[in-house]
Amino acid sequence: MSDYRSLIQKRRTFAIISHPDAGKTTLTEKFLLYGGAIALAGSVKGKKNSRHAVSDWMEIEKQRGISVTSSVLQFQYEGYCINILDTPGHQDFSEDTYRTLMAADSAVMVIDASKGVEAQTRKLFKVCLLRDIPIFTFINKMDREARNPFDLLEEIELELGIKTYPMNWPIGCGKDFKGVYDRNSSQIISFKGDSGKHEAEATVSGLDDPNLKTLIGPYLHEQLCDDIELLDGAGYEFDMDAVRHGRLSPVFFGSALTNFGVEPFLEEFLRMTSSPLPRKTIEGEVDPFDSDFSAFVFKIQANMNKAHRDRIAFMRICSGKFEKNMEVLHQQEGKKIKLSQPQQIMAQEREIIEEAYAGDIIGVFDPGIFSIGDTLCAPGKKILFEGIPTFAPEHFARVRQMDTMKRKQFVKGMSQIAQEGAIQIFQELESGMEEVIVGVVGVLQFEVLEYRLKHEYNVDIRLEPLPYQYIRWISNDEIDPKKITVTSDTKKIQDLKGHHLLLFTSEWNIRWALERNEGLELTDFSRG
Ligand code: G4P
User: Fold this and answer.
1) Chain segment 13-48, per-residue pLDDT in tens
2) 23: Cβ below 6 Å to ligand 1?
3) β-strand 163-166 against 248-253: which pairing, if any?
């Protein structure tokens, strides 16, 4: 195998998702610890009020204790080159999570063992299922009082509609969390360690080891034997094909804080996941081992660095090798461009990179030319990756700028944030940009909009929530929107591309409009 092929073969690219506080940041940090990228856990993230995770950029994230942007980390472990895509830990940003999942080949779902699947993050987890990628579950915080593992599995299956297969089984919980039983090798991995600053010390023994009872105590020993019998008799069969298509989730138990179970999880995860997968294009698939470079943009983030006011376009490399300053074709614009200042986040620092390969995520400086879903490839190639769908907004507000003298900043800020895909902008028919209607997928995005306009563009706005819940694009161009008959609580608007839309307060009103206007065709997505 050539060097180039083996470099791609060793790459793993996955997204990590969780409820806020379930332990995503801690687990990521422990991966870095095991990969040797950091020497001492705790150096990445401090106490809550001085919280400063590598992946948290925005001030608002620190204030709210949630992560609203996603970021990328790369580290090495046992010969693998691992790209972790962090995702926002709140369901109001599930669209951002979806885009990030587009760039990943698998996902890790972190669940708090005492809380299980929480109501407010159900939507976030369900987004994972839309992508048909392998989903691995890490049930965290076993060093605390945890819910019964059987109940947790049942809850995941019922709430998320995915089958589960425990790869290992916890021995006790809370202060009595002794280790895990690995079902594949039928061995016990018990742990010892300090406060989690260093790697946990693991001892491996068989279930019939005479010392085991002393090690874990007779009560836990008996319970473990009963649980294993039950699991082997009643659980689903392990089916790798179902795992690959996101229909069966391998489940691992552990504690990111104490490092118990982190390494067995990482090892097994790397063994079960594949190297970068082929990507769909309009005309077929792109093989990651193809020597010609290709990539697509899945995320755009402005003002990550306040001092530079820069805008970064994140792209997933789908094939070939990327080299600094290489010239690529930007398909959507039909232009050749030089990708300048390519960046990658290696453990704790952002650095300029010289080269990158299929599976890697790079951030490039964006002078305002990229849109989400854009394709970049070697000049002369005719590749066009399938676009990234936008979610129909579910909340609407009228946005007015307070100081009309700042019109330019207002328009710039609104347009840039809309290009990032964080909001969608609409106008009333025959109105200007002084007042616009903004649609979002989650209400927290309004808060972020207000905050960012103030802090990044120095513009104050007034948000007036609107009662609409459903948005529909009018798909027949020949219809004059002014002539459409609608109920008094339905609003006629247009998007920035001039497409006409209707905003409804109920499904009943949608039916009403369709019945009264012969030939009217409505869709719940934009034609682009
Ligand atoms: P998130 O990124 O998913 O939001 O969660 P994060 O890792 O920030 O963890 C949230 C809190 O849960 C942190 O405590 C963290 O220390 C704790 N935690 C994470 N994993 C475990 C675990 O396995 N066991 C236990 N007992 N706790 C865990 P905090 O008090 O909010 O922050 P800090 O003061 O510890 O920094």
Assistant:
1) 999 998 888 999 899 989 988 887 665 555 444 434
2) yes
3) parallel
Which residue among 16, 21, 47 is best mutated to probe the pocket of ligand 1, counting the most ligand atoms within 8 A of its Cβ? Answer: 21
Between the CA of 59 and the centroid of ligand 1 the distance, in Å, is 19
Ligand 1 pocket, residue 371 CB under 6 Å: no
Half-sphere exposure of 224 (CA within 13 A, CB side): 30
Sign of the C-alpha dihedral, residues 491, 492, 496, 499? positive
SS3 content of the chain, % helix, strand, coil (to 5): 30, 30, 40
Quote the ligand 1 centre to 53 CA distance (angstroms).
12
Q: What is the pTM of this model?
A: 0.85
CA dist 174 and 193 (Å) reads 15
Residue 367 structure tokens: 């002078």
Question: What is the total residue count of the chain?
Answer: 528
Is 327 within 8 Å of 336 (Cβ atoms)? yes
Structure tokens at 200: 């946990």
Instruction: Pick the atom of ligand 1 nearest to 258's CA.
Output: 23
Query: pLDDT by residue (tens digit) across 89-110?
Result: 777 788 888 889 999 999 999 9
Q: Is ligand 1 within 6 A of the CB of residue 42? A: no
- The closest of 465, 454, 447, 464 to 63, measured between CA atoms, is 447
Beta carbon of 25 within 6 Å of any ligand 1 atom: yes
The sign of the CA dihedral 352, 358, 363, 366 is: positive
Q: Whose CA is nearest to atom 9 of ligand 1?
A: 23
H helix runs in 73-112, sequence order: 94-102
Token match 């990111």: residue? 256
**Closest Cα to residue 243, out of 152, 155, 135?**
135
315 neighbors 296 (Cβ within 8 angstroms)? yes
